[in-house]
Amino acid sequence: MSKVFSFHGGIHPPGNKKRSTRAAIGKAPLPKTLVVPMQQHIGGPADPLVKIGDQVLKGQLIAEPISRISAAIHAPTSGKVVDVAAYPIPHASGLSEECIVIESDGEDRWIEHQGLDDYRQLRRQDLIEHIRNCGIAGMGGAGFPTDVKLHLSEDHIVNTLIINAAECEPYITADDMLMRERAHEVLGGIEIIAHLLRPSHVLIGIEDNKPNAIHALEAVLKDTELNIDIVVVPTKYPSGGERQLIKLLTDLEVPSGRIPADIGIVCQNVGTTAAVYRAVHYGEPLISRIVTVTGDAVLHPRNLETLIGTPFSTLLEACDLRPEALSKLVMGGPMMGVTVENDQIPVIKTTNCLIAATAQEMPLAPPAQACIRCGMCEQACPAELLPQQLYWFAKGREFDKAKHHNLFDCIECGACAYVCPSNIPLVQYYRYAKSEIRTEQRDQQKADHARQRFEARQARLEREVAEKEARRKARAEEAAKAQQQKAATQSDASPQPAAAAEPDAKQLKTAAAVARTKLKKAQKAYDEAVGTNADNLAELEAALNDARSKAEAAEKALAAGAPATEEGSGDDLKQLKVAAAVARTKLKKAQDALKNAEDKGLDGVDKLRATLVTLENKAEEAQQAYEQAANKPASPSPAPTEEKPAEVDIKALKQQVSIMRTKLKKAESALDGCEDEAEIARMKTEVNELKQRFEQATAEFDKAEQALIERAAKSGIDLKQLRIDAAMARAAVTKGERSLSKADNDDERSQIEQELTSARAKADELNLTLSQYE
Amino acid sequence: MALIRLSSPHVSKANSTANVMRLVLIATLPGILAMTFFFGWGTLIQIALACSLALAFEAAALKLRKRPLGFFLSDGSALVTAILLAVAIPPFSAWWVTATGIFFAIVIAKHLYGGLGNNPFNPAMVAYALLLVSFPVEMTRWTSPMTQHGGGWEIAGFIDTLQAIFGSVDAVFYDSFTGATPLDVLKHRGGLTTEELWRQSDVLSSGVGAWYAVSAAWFMGGIFLLSRKIFTWHAPLSMLIALFLTASAFYGFDPDNYVNPVVHLSVGATMLGAFFIATDPVTSATSNKGKMVFGALLGVLIYVIRTWGNYPDAVAFAVLLMNLCAPFIDQYTQPRSFGHTRANRGMKGKNQ
């Protein structure tokens, strides 16, 4: 016998265990429908492999693990899959999760399965894989996938394997009964796990309130070659807590934030060992477990071998529930168990107990009184914390202090709340504080990400501007050189053809924008297709690549053409003026926004400031460009002066046309309503005159417009298309603004903001171009 | 089926604040009986008066603060405060002395700070200090123990005591029934050595036994509470040990001018202070380590104030000074949590 050490604190609540150990383990009735949740373990939920309508056999794999920490799920009985949807699961949140619902065919027909002949001959890797395929997860409470723990000997030195048979929570006797009746399975499982982990020593920690189980274990241990010791520990809650049990058996403390394997220890629950035994020797996956059904509201409390997915109501009926007496239904023990609100919730791999409690048995907590700092919680805390200080910090939202007082070492065992004379729900306060701190951390991370993204973008934009500038300079130099050479070789060559051959910047810009939009669309379609696993993926991909290359080509052409053209043709003075004005307005707006933000101490100040700086630069640039252009009197081409009148006219003409149309209509309706002959004749001539004038105006307008379109076409722009584009761009901006106001998280918002900025730029650009031609 | 969802744990120990207070009240019984036996009816009358006033003030304060009356009145904390103050003041104190003290304890020291659990200072000690500073004559006119009065075993009658408290009595009454306490005598020694004092003073030579007995009674009550795990041994034991060691050091160095450490432990309010005041959870340090520091400093302060201060007894002032230090002590005496190599100190640590 090994020495027993002790841990700080702990409590001695009434055990209430005897009532459910009188009867042997029974078999729970086969329910009509079984609801099998995809998340019964810690880690990622399993991924369903069956569809509605599929026939399944008992033990058939129906959901596979999707990540390293996850567990396979098997059909608990034979029957038909009738639904794959969200159903309430046994969880403190009371939320629903994805479940596979199986309608039992009553035959309980097994799929073909067989155990491993001699697991010792197998490679360890394969044996662990076999256990993983059987969906074994810790059956003590947390449900940690067992195979992950069995890998631990690969990167840790495992000296001691501890089998947790303490079962310290009141009421629960599932492990007790398992050891009494199936001690050989427990031992068999221990041998398999020991074979995998190769510890030098195996310790079974068991509380002294289970003498029969201890005898049963001792009896089977006589035949084993393993170095196993049963360590009987005094009954004290929470001696079954992993860290507490390790302290009890080895006097070692698992360092905060580390796992037992870091100090050479691996813990397994005694129920898990039996499941491993059945998986290895019989090839049976984990589809049933022993559940203690107890509490004052059932007449015959006992342990039942229950299929996973069996609704609680089936178990309660099997133990003769008195529905009128039931007030609380607890899954797990009274200290850390979860209350459930309805009895249709299914048994999962971690459901070790079901307590149907009466109102007398588990009365509602009386109203909490003031904390008198009596310190009883401190004496009870197994994690050696200062529960009452944590309570004050949680209540006062002083989370830094709570963290400093090691809030996250709290195991939520409930010992403090149990002893509190003021009936303060202490654990609830700690859960609240923990979740608040986690939320804060998540928000902080998000903010950091957004900031990094923004800074990266800012850096990228600056780099791009610098690169552009450098390219422009290089090209200008080259052009100057070429010019000089040309001038030297061919003094009388006209510059006209060269200018004409120069690609039109605007056209290129439009082409590039169109290509970009197409690319985006293609990308979106592709993403959607990937999301939904559509069939035409390859096709879309090809389209996407095509669009991408087109966009790149357009972009390249633009980059090559734009600066040269800008220089070559000489900027339109008006355009520059407008651009400068727009930039100034934007700058002013940004300044106002910044001031507003600073006054209110809003979060985005830094961001706004950065934006402001960029805008200032832009405004300056625009102003400079404008001044430069304005000071260059030699450059204006004759064209604008020629076209100016037409520009002014087009609006007037349009107005004229509409006026004429109205007049004509009026006259016509007057004519219809008139009965006097003489009047009619006079009016008719009037109408005819008006008609003529209207036609004339229309013709004039058409001509002017045609001229405009021609002029636009000359510079490569389809005016109609331009108008449509401008309208669409404006609509995109409005839409973006609307969705920004609706966006509810930072990620989304920053994305939308980016999109909005580009949309705005585009709209501005188009409007500008449009204003030039109208 | 109307099932409810609640946060675990789903069971709790049958315990309540009222129960804690009730046990404290029971633990005061030996002390009260001993005081009544040696100093007369005054103690009981003061307790009755103080308790009824305390409940009245508590109810009024709760009413003004719009708190449920029955819920808070039944927690018994006001009664504990009242009894602690009532046994601390002289048994013949006039009713208005008690009333002022209770008002101050309940309304000012407790409810103005937010009620039970939120008061930084022990209400009874705040009130006692106020009374001692405000009414020094009344507060130092302690009743003589019965063994000392003349040749017989006489204590003041019930009616006389009532008159002394609620009406007025001749000065003769005070002359015959009150006198200096041992600590008074030892303080105002007038050039005599400690040994000479013990021979010359009536109180010291024949009356000090009564004080010893009362201290023993408080000690018994304290042991009872300790056995019921109402508080831990840390604060009282460290206080007594610190007082004893400090006193021993000075006594061993100069026994003529300093008082025997055993006397320090067994006269005045030492035992009452150790088991009923220093253990007040609301106003003392939190952790076990913190309680030890709290108790030890308290013991040293009591000795310092008794020996060199202006007032004969020092428990109230020492406790108030230590109440002031408790939050600070808390910051530096966090326990080492499970799985940690060392305890965190201060408010912000490395593991931030």
Largest sheet of chain B: 2 strands, antiparallel
Provide the structure class of chain A. Answer: alpha/beta
Number of helices of chain A: 22
If you compute it from the alpha carbons, what radius of gyration of chain B comes out, rounded to the nearest whole angstrom? 22 Å
Oligomer: heterodimer
So, CATH architecture of the domain at 18-353 in chain A? Answer: 3-Layer(aba) Sandwich
Q: Residue ranges of chain A: pLDDT <50 for 5 or more in a row?
A: 495-501, 564-570, 633-646
Please indicate the percent range of residues of chain A in DSSP E strands (runs of 2 or more): 5-15%
Cα shape of chain A? elongated
- Proportion of strand residues of chain B: under 5%
CATH homologous superfamily classification of the domain at 18-353 in chain A: NADH-ubiquinone oxidoreductase 51kDa subunit
Q: Give me the CATH fold name of the domain at 18-353 in chain A.
A: Rossmann fold
How far apart are the termini of chain B?
Answer: 47 Å
C-alpha-based Rg of chain A, rounded = 40 Å
Number of helical segments of chain B? 17
Mean pLDDT rating of chain A: 83
Query: For the terminal residues of chain A, how far apart are their CA atoms?
Result: 99 Å
Provide the low-confidence segments of chain B as ranges: none
Instruction: Give the number of domains of chain B.
Output: 2
Neighbour order of strands in the largest sheet of chain B: 1-2
Binding site for [4Fe-4S] cluster 1 (chain A): 371, 374, 377, 420
Biased composition (Low complexity) (chain A): 481-502, 623-634
Enzyme class (chain A): translocase
Membrane topology (chain A): Peripheral membrane protein
